[in-house]
Protein 1
Amino acid sequence: MKPDASTEKADCLTWSAKVEVWDIAVRLFHWSLVLLVATTAITGFLAAEWWLDYHVWAGYGIALLLMFRLAWGFVGSYYARFASFRFPFRVLLKHMREVVSGKGGQYLGHNPAGALMVFALIFVLLALVLSGLIGLGGQENQGMLAAFADYQSGVLALEIHDILSILLLGMIVAHLAGVVLESVLSKENLVRAMVTGRKKAEPGRLPHSFGKKRVVWRAPVVVALIGLIVGPAYWQLTNMPASGFVAMKNNPTWASECGDCHYAYHPSLLPRSSWDTVMSGLSDHFGEDASLDKDTQSEISAFLSKYSSEHWDSEAANELQKVDLKKPLEITASPYWKQRHEEIEPLVFKRKSIGSKGNCIACHTDAKSGHFADEKISIPE
Amino acid sequence: MKKQNIIFAALFASLVMPLSMAMAASSPILDEIKKQAGGVEFSAERGKTLFSQKFTGGKPDTPSCTSCHGKSPQNTGKTRAGKAIAPMAVSKSPERYTDAKKVAKWFRRNCRTVLGRECTPTEKGDFLTYMMSQ
């Protein structure tokens, strides 16, 4: 064993020897987090709706990493433990004054400002995961909380999610600035230290007993425990029926009669009053005679009323029931429909593969179920 | 496949095939319309004209059958809402014109939409004769 590789005994170090500070678990955690946060940022801020799946998977990944880091903060190696970087407020103030006067590098592990950032990042990321899950469950009727979150909570949660995501961007900038500043002040490349795990031990910042042996067996145990808890919980929760959806028995008459000329609009897409007007005016149905015999008409009418938007708590039902008052029968005239489709060029709707704005199912591949999930959108050429 | 099954299939085909061919030649739906029309001889030529002609009495978006069904009965059409319509020609859509209720429903709706009135039995007969010849 080389003398500078020994981390258990401080006294056999020569000054300026490199010692291991960030254990392998901390480093893997850090860089995986960087990758996943970047994925969520790109899919969340820049990508189109149908990238939602990737955003969500990266979010779940972040949740798992955070769970690991929280556990590691108690059972990990010395510098990974929260106890090793929980500084009193006055120490933080003292540190800030020293930084302003150009002094740095006294801390081998996190300095007080860096430590504060670690806690803040963990807190904000946890809040992002939670608000994302509530939003996903409430607005999209998907994910682990689909059975519990209602639409309005989902909308609110996503507003908070948006604000937190901007805050996180700011924090990342501050974190990077802090790393650069401390690197300059301590004359040590801290980015490289997070890769190699090693930092220079100098007079005044002696390495603490590191606990390398613990890392080797504790990390896999923590990972296995998280897997044992999260795996079944995920399976159990995602298999519960979404709260916004009712079990609708398909009506073959509705499916065939309405489906003859157009995508059979899901009953949840219009309020009862609109369906009643549609069904009583079939002899002039959007410029065509679509009259039905009496029995068929009343059967379809009853079906549509029974499952009209008032009975659902999905995104489509909640938003599309706010119809355009002058055109209460036109789903594509409602304010929400227009707002969500405003970025789509009119020529896209004219494509052979689409035909018209009313052909929902051309792009919303799950239109039959009434879900209209973001990731099920696929605009054909 | 067992030998018995092959014999059975051959027997079945020899019985059913001439029967179905005979049915195609004389459709009960067409016979009924013929009765209503008072025995007039239907003409595929007149049916073709009816199919491609432009009318002014109906709804403005659909002046002709071809507005949605396309210029040729052999081709797939498209509703105004963007959904594909199977070709009208019997050779392309053999299941067409076999359900009397369906035929009545679509003549009622589409004649009103395109012509602005119900079609006469002769018009219906010409139309069906044309589509069955296609």
Note: The interface with chain B takes residues 259-263, 283-284, 286-293, 354-356, 358-359, 362 of chain A (CB under 8 Å).
Protein 2
Amino acid sequence: MRLNADRLTALAVLAPSVILLAIFVYGFIGQTFYIATTNWQGLGAVEIRSVGLQNFEALFAGSGLPFFRFREALVNTVVFTVLFIAACLSLGLFLAILLDQRIRAETLFRTIFLFPMALSFVVTGTVWRWLFSPRSGLNTLPTVFGGAALPPDQWAWFTDRRQLVTFTWADASRTVVILIIVGLLVFAVTAALRRRPVQALIVGMIGLSLIGWFFLGGAFEALGTVVRPLHGVNLAMVSIVIAATWQMSGYTMAMYLAALRGIPEELREAARVDGCNELQVYRHVVLPLLQPITLSAMIILGHISLKIFDLIYVMAGGDNLRVDVPGIHMYLTAFRGNNFALGAAIAVIMLILVAFVIVPYLINAFRTEVRR
Amino acid sequence: MSALALPQRRQAALRRRTFTRAAIYATLIFWALIYLIPIYLVLVTSLKPRAEVSLDQVWTLPRQVSTDAFIAAVERLSPNFLNSVALTGPATILSAVLGSLNGYVLSKWRFRGANIVFPLMLFGMFIPYQSVLIPLFQLLSQLRLTGTLWGLILTHVVYGLPITTLIFRNYYAEIPDELVEAAQIDGANFFNLYAKVIFPLSLPGFVVVIIWQFTQIWNEYLFAVTLTDPASQPITVALSQLAGGQAIDFSLQMAGSFLAALPTLLVYILLGRYFIRGLLAGSVKG
Amino acid sequence: MNKRLLSLFVAIVLGFALVGSAAAQGGGKLEIFSWWAGDEGPALEALIKLYNQKNPNVEVVNATVTGGAGVAARAVLKTRMLGGNPPDSFQVHAGQELTGTWVVANRMEPLTELYRSEGWLDKFPKDLIDLITYEGEIWTVPVNIHRSNVMWYVPAKLQEWGVEVPKTWDEFLAVCPKIKERGVTPLAMGENWTAVHLFENVLLAQLGVQGYRDLFDGKLSWESDAAKAAWTLFDKILDCTNPDAASLSWQQANDLVIEGKAAFYVMGDWAAGYMTTTKGLTPGEGFGYAPAPGTEGVFNMLSDSFGLPKGAPNRENALAWLRTVGSAEGQDTFNPLKGSIPARIDADVKNPNLYNSYLQSAAADFASNALVGSLMHGAAAPESFLNDFQTVISVFIATRDADLAASASQALAEASAR
């Protein structure tokens, strides 16, 4: 009796949070989806009506420049995410291994590598905006050592307009679509071979329906209608990657360091007894044990980089095409350009991208927990 | 033990070891200096008088130390600094308290469906906030809460719930169930149990959560820039405008950056241990 | 409930109460929203001071969002208006930015009655009144007139380099390599909006007054040969600008000219205010000015004005503010500091103690030249067009694809005409 009353109290205590999150997360996401299927302009007297998936079609296959800008932002985000994760992981691991060598003043070093994490992206953006200002900042650092300042047109940092690899949207998007479909089908076949018919069926159906949608439904042709201007790997993104890595690499360092400390000394000792030198100990014993941490770090960093907004907005301004990202484009489209429907559509795409990274991770984390 | 007394081979090994150690320290110091470059620039620039700041002489030490930039920054930013304090305080404490209660329920009063409800709650901490920004803005407008700190506090409390709940849930999972059961046999009800057993053990958990939330909310920008007006802007928004369209007054910008960074930096330096714990808790399983 | 828990909740409630009382609004306030801060701030402050002399009990909240030409401010203002939290009065460019955005959306109060009671109807130029009139009502009070098509330089430097002030863009392109050889940037430029600003004056030079007007009236296509030629020309001009433009504010780009690192700068005449007030230079000596190439005899104008949003929390104070803004005294207080000419025709613009030689010449041009409205500064096209046009410019700067820019602009024009 007593227990039942307590159980009810427990649920009642949890309820407000659950309700608030249900509204603020799921209700709002639903509303954003809805707005994305209308023509709502915020101000103005235009009657709001449903336009179906037109906003999404326009973003992916429309010929207007605002849509081109979205695709450029999408490409930039992918480039940024890859470079940023690679930089944070390698630098973080490198520093963690160094710090794991029984270093005197370890706390001091750790504090220095980690302190940028405590700062706001706005502060980082403000400071690095100046460090990367082509006429000043880092470009004039050589003068301290008696050298000549780097020429601003060659070292243009976030104002750089050059692209390294260029490709058309048609090629890029079609390649991605094909890769996704192939990936799904391969997954389905593997599942079937492993005698998991439900998984195989579901994933196979998704893959087949994508094939149907793209090839029979004409979406594949639509993606190919826009070929100009070219997208590419923008040099300007490098400066954003450096600033973001400065801020976040301490995080991967801390994760790796914690993991290194968790590896029992006996394991390493055993490897040494087997004749491994220090490098081999790391290659064969330590690094394999760090894999789960690497995966976690990739997911955390990945979801941060996919939604990045403030760092770039403060550092490089809002209308800098070569470093544009969906987070900025969404904000300006909705709150400056008044096009709330299109802004909502961009937000939906951002959410789907992040969900691709996060949902499998959450499912996996909880499945293992339940099993335990 | 003296090195001379050692056989030749061990001496060589020792020399190699000393060399490796020196290389490790040198590399560490090199990287530490790189990480500190921006701080050097901030300090040096903010201590220069405005006239001494020029584009091609950024790295020199100030010939004459001036606190003008700091005085100007304090003058310009102190209302926003206070806004940030008034925002961060209540939002942090409220989300911590709610997180603690939620964590208590989810770890000690597990109910059927908890394994579905909790991941669904957690998803809220990963979403890009752009995907809720427009409806959030609509709702707060209808409640007449845009342009005030209240709207922003509510926003941060709600979106802070997933992480605070997660940290407390994992933290309370370490408290043995036997303690809870013993108290229940003694007749403790839901709240007694929380007050007598759980809460007294919660201090480290609260420190971690409060530090984490404090840092996140203090540093946040997107909600702040969308939901406040100039009278209620927190310091991040004011700082971004200081840097936006002004003439070359870098000393003011840098002093402002320092001011905006100071509270979280202090917390980090004084309570770094807990900060790192919050950081690692962010990766769901901790 | 347990005692410790209770005390915790009491603490929280107390905390909330403290915050609440800090945020509580007192009576007798006036909040003015603008993007004038820093170097443009003193003019507004002087106007506020004048207002306070007449309305001593009103506490004025000077809400500024910086960022040249109000690019950031417009986003913030929009969120506030949409959020039902309007300021009492806000700065808005006369023309399409006012009517196309706010009046059409039914967010403003008409001010025709104020004009009648103050006797202002014949005190402002007719062209300007037309610009702020929509469906028979007047909607804002203009405080000044700025000129967009001005080219700035330092006479002593030009002499040193042996460079003449170009009268056309062809002349400029001819002299561009010569200036480059000296390691000097021929034309200074700043972040994205200053590129739009430059482009509108290239467009004006290329199309002439009638063509420019026709373009924004929808009578001339953006894909016509004449309009396309403007993009090709703009491409060549961009090659003469500094590569780090995106990292500079308009003031920093201006500084390049003052420091002799760049030769010319096309910018609105708030640059004159910056160079005289902040940099202490004398017009004609410390800095020189000429109409932007190919725009002699044309005055590309914009006007800052203040309006009364519906639902302004302190409506009476806002009306008193508008009376100050529209008074001859107010305009003569504001404009000499801002570096603009007064919007009122009966202001004391001939007074050399108030208005320097540049402003005198601008006032003379304003009276005699053909007038057109600025694109970047809200007179010529609606804001929805402008927002996307900034994307067009940022794409063009990166890709230099004239055909693409032309067709994209035409698409935008058609979309915003609908």
Note: Chain B touches chain A through 94 residues (CB under 8 Å).
